[in-house]
Amino acid sequence: MDMMLSEATDAHNPASGGILETSRPMAIEARGLVKRFEGTTAVDGVDLAVPEGAIYGILGPNGAGKTTTLRMLLGIIDPDAGIRRIFGHDRPHDIARMIGYLPEERGLYPSMKAYEAIGFLGALRGLPLAEGKRRGRELLERHDLGHAADRQIRQLSKGMAQTVQLLGTLVHKPRLVVLDEPFSGLDAINQGKLELMIRELAAEGTTVIFSTHVIAHAERLCEGVAIIAGGKVPYAGSVDEARDRIPAQVRLETRAEHGRWRDALPADARREGDFWMFSLPESGIEPLLRALIEGEAGILSLSIERAGLHDAFVHIAGEAAARALTEQSAVEAAR
Amino acid sequence: MSPSETAGGHRKSRLNLWSAAFVIARRDFQAILFSRAFLFFLLGPVFLLGVGALSSGVGSQIREETVDPEVGIAMSVPDTAAMLAAHTALAEQLGGAMPPMIAVETSPQDGNLQQAAEAILEERQGNYAAIVTGTPAAPVMTGTADQLDRLGGRVALVAAAAIGEAPAKFPEITTQEVATSGASEKSSRVVTAQISQMLLFLLTMLLAGMVLSNLVEEKGNKIIEVLAAAIPMDAVFLGKLFAMLGVSMVGILVWGSVAGVLVLVVGADLAALPPPAVGWPLFLLLGVVYFSMGYLLLGSIFLAIGSMAATVREVQTLSMPVTMLQLLVFFFASYAMARPGSPMEVAAVIFPLSSPFAMMARAAQMEALWPHALAILWQVFAVAVFIKAGATLFRKRVMKSGPQGVSKKRRFWNRKPAAT
Q1: What are the residue boundaries of the ABC transporter domain, all occurrences included (chain A) (predicted)?
Q2: Which listed residue, of A137, A252, A325, B417, carries a Cα 20 to 30 Å from A35's Cα?
Q3: Which residues of B touch A88 (CB under 8 A)?
Q4: Which of A62, A71, A105 is the closest to B222 by Cβ?
């Protein structure tokens, strides 16, 4: 199986199949993952390759198959077809100490104290309970929750409990952190803190993979993304490559309205108010610029705008998936 | 490449099954033991004793108020007197074995006494089980078939005594008492077997049922996914079972200590208890082992059934059939106990759920120890199979994505999930 996966990985096209171009060893490799639930195909042939130390996002609307994919990667459920390997292991439970997991539906024992809950989550991953509790107190202090260390989970606010669970996910110092919708339910300040934590983890060499339906988080944080819609992954690769799927847009403002220079504009040029908008020609901007000057267009302003991840998502996953994503983000923001 | 290494050079790093189960068991055990609810749990038998005392009081009251059915004598006046005199004489020797006997008041117009007796019984007059007419030499007994079967012999004995054909005087017997006999030891051991089996069943029924709702908390507070991601589900099941077994053992220890103190205070003679075949020390040890095995066997099934339930209400709904299942198992083991060595008893020993109960009865009745070693191994194997099956079922049926996309109503243990 090792050989099969390696060969498949090497032969894979990075732009279309989920491999980031990197010489780093892989933290996660998945090929052709399929999961069906009583006739419904929840995940349909997902390929992923996440190099060690990367921040990787799985981007898609609710019901797209994000959680099911993560659950298969973690060994919570087994795929009906396909292979998954975490740090080269077929069975994720075999390397449980190297993994930290924050599920979408957060849960802790309400009667446990905050530092005990962190210790317990560490103990599940093989950390001695006493050491876990000690680290729990330390982590709570470091994240301005020292005052809550001896409070029961049921006495904490939702945000605080969520932070406690996140700290419990990290207490055993995992090499791979899997976060399912980690920003869900957090206010803007805590979202910022979480982004910082994720960056710090990656800086320490920890691989972070998270699912989200908020494009901005993925765009700000991720080295690579997998766009998932309807159980399929139409794109997996670097964020830059995803954005490059759409040619950069040129925004041009001219003094002259007519003239020979207009013949030099690309075929897709369109008027938007005072501006001309069109895709950056494959030959680059210089030949066009020369033609505009020679044609006496009177250039007032010219800017090249690279496509955002949202545009790339629309382009790759389609309008419907993008609309679902936007609606869910709006609902999330309204909470 | 060794099995514990991979291309990336990472070694396997995880808790083994027992360590993982210990993490779960320790959490559950402490959470239950240090909860207020545990105090009520310990007080449970007090309520049971209260109910027992109350029902026993009511029972004796009813017994006192209940009049035993009588045998009526409807013969000529001298014959009736002879029958009643013979009854009194025999009752002195046979005590309670003789049914109460009274004269039936008849009038001369009754004519045929047999027809009169029939009419009295059909009209349900008095409290007669049967009425005897005719003469002591040729008695005619009227009554229902079962009463005729039950009372016929004793009425004939009274009639024989009335006509002087039964001994009028009984010789005095000199008695010599021995500590035991074959029949006495056998019946004592049956009593020990019955009591131990009943105790084992009561404890298992009271305590194993708690396991039913054990995973509802984890499912309710969503921590189940964290557990499932970190350790094998087998370890979760195993840990939960052993935690509950530990809690039950603490309860039994407390109840046993209280009972022991009460026995000392009351000054009951424990030596009067019929000794089991394997001796008391081993019998008690086997009791602990068979309770544990019975608990783990039933508990592993209850845990699996309960884990399929989504809410406490569903668990409550499930508790009735589960109690019935326990009763069935107990009746099977009890029935088999009376026939040691029979195919039925062997079946009860082999069937995993009844095996601990049947073997407990065996320990009271038979001295051989090797069947216990075999049975315990078999029961351990069955526990392992049940836990594995339950955990597998749980992973397949329950550990799926959220509730979105459920298109039609399904059985609660078979709900269709949707990807999220």
Answers
A1: 28-255
A2: A325
A3: 6-8, 10
A4: A105
Alpha carbon distance B345, A179 (integer Å): 56
Which residues, in sequence order, are CB contacts of B400 under 8 Å at separation 6+? A37, A68, A77, B417
DSSP B231-284: S-HHHHHHHHHHHHHHHHHHHHHHHHHHHHHHHHHHT--GGGSPPPTT-HHHHH
Choose, out of B226, B227, B404, B406, the residue to mutate when testing the contact with A (most A CBs < 10 Å). Answer: B226
Check: CB of residue A83 under 8 Å from CB of residue A26: no
Q: B416: closest CA among A41, A67, A82?
A: A41
User: Dihedral angle at the C-alpha atoms of A108, A111, A114, A116, nearest 10 degrees?
Assistant: -90
Distance from CA of B349 to the nearest CA of A (A): 37
CA distance A19 to A31: 11
Can you give the length of chain B in residues? 420
Question: A2-238 sits in which CATH class?
Answer: alpha beta
CB spacing of A74 vs B402 below 8 angstroms: no
The one-character DSSP state at A108 is: -
Q: Which residues contact A262 (CB under 8 A, 6 or more apart)?
A: A295, A297
Q: Does B43 touch chain A (CB under 8 A)?
A: no
Separation CA B76–CA B110 (nearest Å)? 12
What is the C-alpha to C-alpha distance for residues A254 and A299, in angstroms, rounded to an integer? 4
The answer to whether B420 and B401 have CB atoms below 8 angstroms apart is yes
Where exactly does CATH 3.40.50.300 map onto chain A?
A: 2-238
Query: B344: part of which helix (H) or strand (E)?
Result: helix B343-350
Following DSSP, what letter does each residue of A162-223 receive, concatenated?
HHHHHHHHHTT--SEEEEESTTTT--HHHHHHHHHHHHHHHHTT-EEEEEES-HHHHHHH-S
pLDDT of B100-114, one tens digit each? 898 987 765 656 777
The neighbouring-strand residues paired with A276 are: A252, A271
First and final C-alpha spacing in chain B: 37
The answer to whether the beta carbons of residues B419 and A232 sit under 8 Å apart is no
Domains in chain B and their CATH numbers?
Answer: 70-162 (3.40.190), 184-401 (no CATH)
Across the range B398-420, mean pLDDT stands at 46
Order of strands, edge to edge, in the sheet holding A176-180? A99-102, A176-180, A207-212, A55-59, A224-229, A232-238
Largest pairwise CA distance in chain A: 79
Q: Please report which helix (H) or strand (E) contains residue B147, including its range.
A: helix B145-162
What is the DSSP-derived secondary structure letter of residue B93? H
Answer yes or no: is the ipTM higher than 0.85: no
At B84 the three-state DSSP class reads helix
Most trustworthy range by pLDDT among A217-221, A293-297, B190-194, B239-243? B239-243
Q: Tell me the whole-structure pTM to 2 decimals.
A: 0.74
Q: Which residues of B touch A125 (CB under 8 A)?
A: 15, 230
A136-193 pLDDT, tens digit per residue, is 999 999 999 999 999 999 999 988 999 999 999 999 999 999 999 999 888 888 889 9
- Cα B198 → chain centroid: 4
Rounded Cα distance, B116 and A44, in Å: 91
User: Are the Cβ atoms of A96 and B230 closer than 8 angstroms?
Assistant: yes
Q: In angstroms, what is the C-alpha Rg of chain B? A: 32
Q: State the smallest CA–CA distance between residue A47 and chain B in angstroms.
A: 17
Which residue does chain B place closest to A24, by CA atoms? B8
Asked if A111's CB is within 8 angstroms of B420's CB, the reply is no
